[in-house]
From TrEMBL:
Name of the protein: alcohol dehydrogenase
CDD domains found in the cross-reference section: arabinose_DH_like
Keyword line: Metal-binding, Oxidoreductase, Zinc
One Gene Ontology molecular-function label: alcohol dehydrogenase (NAD+) activity
Coiled coil (residue ranges): none
Alphabetized InterPro entries for the sequence: ADH-like_C (IPR013149), ADH-like_N (IPR013154), ADH_Zn_CS (IPR002328), ER (IPR020843), GroES-like_sf (IPR011032), NAD(P)-bd_dom_sf (IPR036291)
Keyword Oxidoreductase in record: yes
Sequence ranges assigned to domain Enoyl reductase (ER) in this UniProt record: 8-339
EC number of this enzyme: 1.1.1.1
Pfam family, one: ADH_N
Gene3D superfamilies, per the entry: Medium-chain alcohol dehydrogenases, catalytic domain, NAD(P)-binding Rossmann-like Domain
Organism phylogeny: Bacteria, Pseudomonadati, Bacteroidota, Flavobacteriia, Flavobacteriales
Length: 341
């Protein structure tokens, strides 16, 4: 079968000679419908976020059940499913609570399929347990694939601050890409706060307005923080969701976050922050959430089934993977690219 393989040392190739796996026990073989292309792949390929192993890329996966191992119950050939991405041990307390993204054994395990283990940029993908599948009913797997990350990650980040996102507050979204463009829609649907979006191009800021941002600010403007404080007034933002995570965006977030606010850094842009007593308003929490839980993925599917969120998708073939990664590097993908075998 065909697959997009990462060989380490920045080397990615499309190969044609992988054997189609056969599921055993609780394993499930999926025929891939779509595999989303996440910016984290670039942190893996270009910056060595995952090293020392060869594997098939693609950690945002959806498809149809092709074949099940002898212990699998409740799934049959043709069922449309999403693959929950952060694969935990399945047994510890966070995993039992469906928070496999915070599995006690996180430091001992690979992150999951497409992040150290074989992922879904291939004709077929072997999922190690039926526990990691979530049915999508009549959603199309091609369109639904990015729900597993581009939607789940912002959903989980927003949910932990939901009690602060009241209608008289301001929330700032930094980075209107794959994750950020879904964050804007989730915020519009599940909270009443006024949304301010930041990005670096006029096109992205216009896109943000279409997705629910009341105000937009170009974060490369020298006075970006002042522009935002002019909008919010003295209270500043209650929640800042940073989908870039560079030093410059973290610095911006720290200037615009208000008292008792949440500065939530989702992006893995390699940023640094120097904490200094007295500089950050009191009560602020800085967090670095990772992905989301299995049950939150079910909630995200609920939003998609009700058409309350949609992913802006650009479809490509597996053979175009390298070209797509280049476009993503250059900031030329609007919404999410999905590879369709
Ligand atoms: P993307 O490339 O689709 O989007 C990034 C967006 O940020 C683009 O619109 C770009 O124009 C914008 N941007 C770049 N620099 C900016 C700046 N200085 N100010 C404002 N906007 C800026 O990326 P994505 O797939 O949405 O991923 C975003 C980040 O989140 C990546 O670092 C990725 O690795 C990370 N991520 C983290 C998790 C997690 O669980 N913590 C999960 C998925 C992705
Ligand atoms: Zn991702
Ligand atoms: Zn666990």
């Amino acid at each position: 079968m065909k697959a997009v393989r990462f060989f380490g040392n920045k080397e990615v190739r499309v190969v044609n000679d992988l054997e189609k796996p056969s599921p055993k026990g609780d394993e499930v073989l999926l025929k891939i419908g779509g595999a989303g292309v996440c910016h984290s792949d670039l942190h893996v390929i270009d910056e060595g976020l995952v090293s020392g192993v060869t594997f098939t890329l693609g950690h945002e996966n959806a498809g149809w059940v092709e074949e099940v191992g002898e212990d699998v119950k409740g799934y049959k050939k043709g069922d449309a499913v999403l693959v929950y991405g952060p694969w935990g041990c399945g047994h510890c307390k966070p995993c039992q609570n469906s928070n496999e993204n915070y599995c006690d054994h996180h430091s001992e395990l690979a992150f999951g399929g497409g992040l150290g283990l074989n992922g879904g940029m291939a004709d077929y993908m072997l999922v190690p347990s039926s526990r990691l599948l979530v049915p999508i009913h009549d959603l199309d797997p091609v369109i639904a694939a990015p729900l597993t990350d581009a939607a789940l990650t912002p959903y989980s980040a927003i949910k932990r601050s939901l009690h602060k996102l009241m209608p008289d507050e301001y929330v700032v979204v930094i980075g209107v890409g794959g994750l950020g463009h879904v964050a804007l829609q989730i915020l519009s649907e599940i909270c009443g706060s006024t949304i301010i979006a930041c990005d670096i191009t006029v096109e992205r800021l216009e896109f943000a307005k279409q997705l629910g941002a009341k105000y937009t600010v170009n974060s490369t403007d020298k006075d970006a923080a002042e522009q935002i404080k002019k909008i919010t007034g003295i209270k500043k933002a209650k929640v800042v969701l940073d989908f870039v995570g560079a030093s410059s965006t973290i610095a911006l977030g720290s200037k615009i976050i208000g008292l008792d606010g949440d500065l939530t850094i989702v992006g893995l842009g390699g940023g640094k922050y120097d904490y200094k007593v007295g500089e950050l308003p009191v009560g602020v929490s800085i967090t670095n959430p990772y992905w989301g839980s299995r049950t939150e993925l079910m909630e995200v599917i609920g939003l998609a089934l009700q058409k309350k969120i949609h992913i802006e998708i650009e479809k490509y073939s597996l053979d175009q993977a390298l070209e797509v990664y280049d476009k993503l590097r250059q900031g030329k993908i609007k919404g999410r690219a999905v590879l369709v075998p």
